[in-house]
Amino acid sequence: MFSTNFILFSLGGVGVSLLELLSVLSGLTCVFLAGRGKTLNFWFGYVYCILLFALFMQKHLYSSMILQPISMVINVIGHYRWTHPNEKERNKDKELIVTKMSAPFRALNVILVVLLALVWGWIVQQIGQIWPDVFPPAKIPILDSFVTMMILTAQYLSAQKKIECWAAWLAVNITNIILYILAGLVFMPIVSACYLVLAVLGYKSWKQQMKEQ
């Protein structure tokens, strides 16, 4: 029987499974469509969350696995927000327009990301000490938690169609590229570089949409 655990190819001695490849393709498609303001991106987002949940469970990456149900909820909220905007937030197609955050709200988001990353990093460390057999101690819990909180922030801002979401995605992908290279991985830095390019293109597209609104 054909399995998603089947190794399709290897890069740098690291095998890439069908499940991992499907996750990457659905994620890239989701970001590509989001950058063009297409509501269809959310359907690929749902698939992406499900595939990542299965992938991280398989890899015993429980912190990242737990993140996926939260991402799914944010995805549902974003889907509704994009398709059911308030009257003042609608474009000619009755979809949510692209907007900017106010300076105080932007500063608040940065502060929250830092504080929540510190708290979550501490929690991850404690869990690793209490149940080391189930949750192996994290190597860099604070940095890992920072990326996690940045991902959630980027997803939330994307759901609200705030242009600053692309700055958050840029920070996430640059950090991931560095982490993957330091870890000696080959395939994932390439994937993150693709996400980085899509984030730049998404920002330019949304900026153009703001001018046309």
What labels would you give this structure?
70% helix; 213 residues
Describe the SSE topology.
Blueprint (H helix, E strand, L loop, with lengths): L6 E5 L2 E4 H18 L5 H18 L3 H22 L19 H28 L10 H19 L5 H18 L4 H26 L1
Antiparallel strand pairs: 1-2
Helix pairs in contact: 1-2, 1-7, 2-3, 3-5, 4-5, 5-6, 6-7
Characterization of this structure:
The structure is a single chain. The chain is mostly helical and 213 residues long. It has one domain (13-86, 113-212). Helices cover 70% and strands 4% of the residues. The chain is built from seven helices and two strands; from the N terminus they run ββααααααα. It has helices at 18-35, 41-58, 62-83, 103-130, 141-159, 165-182, 187-212; strands at residues 7-11, 14-17. A two-stranded antiparallel ribbon has the order 1-2. The longest helix has 28 residues, at 103-130. It is globular.
What is the arithmetic mean of pLDDT? 84
The number of E-state strands comes to 2
What's the Cα radius of gyration?
Answer: 18 Å
Instruction: Please state the overall shape, judged from the principal axes of the Cα atoms.
Output: globular
Residue runs with pLDDT of under 50 for 5 or more positions = none
Strand fraction equals: under 5%
Oligomer: single chain
Order of helices and strands: EEHHHHHHH
The number of distinct helices, counting runs of at least 4 residues, comes to 7
Briefly note the structural class of the backbone: mainly alpha
Major beta sheet summary: 2 strands, antiparallel
How much helicity do the residues have? Answer: 55-70%
Number of domains: 1
Q: Spatial order of the strands in the main sheet?
A: 1-2
Amino-to-carboxy terminus distance: 52 Å
